[in-house]
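Form P-L/3: holo structure prediction, ligand zinc ion.
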Amino acid sequence: MQLPREVVVGHQTLLLLGDICKKLGFSESALVVTGPDTQDIAGKNVIDLLSDKGMDIDYIVVQSSTLQEVGDVEQRIKETKPEIVLGVGGGTKIDVAKLSSTRQGLPFISVPTNASHDGIASPVAAVKGLDKPYSVMAQSPMAIVADTDVIVRSDYRFTASGCGDLVSKFTSVRDWELAYKVKNEYYGEYAASLALMSARLVTKNADLIKPGSEEGLRLVLEALISCGVAMSIAGSSKPCSGSEHLFSHSLDVVESNGGLHGQQCGVGAIMMAYLYDIDWKGIKDTLQKTGCPTTAEGLGVKPESVVKALVQSCSIRPERYTILDTKELDYESAKKLAKVTGVIP
Ligand SMILES: [Zn+2]
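OUTPUT (holo model):
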């Protein structure tokens, strides 16, 4: 079990980064992985803050999370041999930092600039170019520094997407339980409770989560970090990624320009909750309150694509046992499911 050692969430916590690095034993050098936009939002600030502490800082700008870019960062690590890698940006920049540092045997620190999904704190990374359209195991961040003053300025739809990823734990935990009961797979109640608690927290406080609210944002960040920790404890993404995530991955295959990860998982959770006969309307209500889409139109995808994605969800990751394995949706039953939950008209 590998867990983060320092987790700091709050207003202007970025200023603590230098001290945190020092406390963890890194005072010589670091490589900052950032994006073209996030460089201005926080990347430069991080470089200045660490340089002021006397550290030798190199940085690399990546566009998205592809295997090619992971390779580029690995090459830079080999050349400059930093003590630690920092991922400063949205999910994709953090994933590139996470996977490249893992492959080169270095620890990494996560400095998110938005709250779009639980990858900011999880041990898994989603990278395009791998042979499978879902996340792979990498490593937990050694520290997470989430500055709400920075993140509150990001486009609010990212935070709403984070809420979608959070409510999706209502169904992912069910799937994990199901796999335990039917397939006798390992199931950890502590990790499951932690994931579920995060989903409940966002449901209970949905009214607080809105544009410009650092209080609501902090809640979302803490819940996302708890989910990351749940995955670290479980040693797998299972507590946080079930049938609703399979739907999202499947939709990515069907429609290359769909919604954000968390938005798609939220919509998936509505439909999978219906299959489980649990409170799907409650999930939908939370998504609506937080401003996360609940329909194909809201995701910007064709109704037909939702149906196709549902039918194909089951075959995306055959080894992950979920409710989809018991329902075997065909075109007609998938369409019915999407209609009855209001995802498609
Ligand atoms: Zn997710």
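COMMENT: The CA atoms of residues 191 and 218 lie 21 Å apart.
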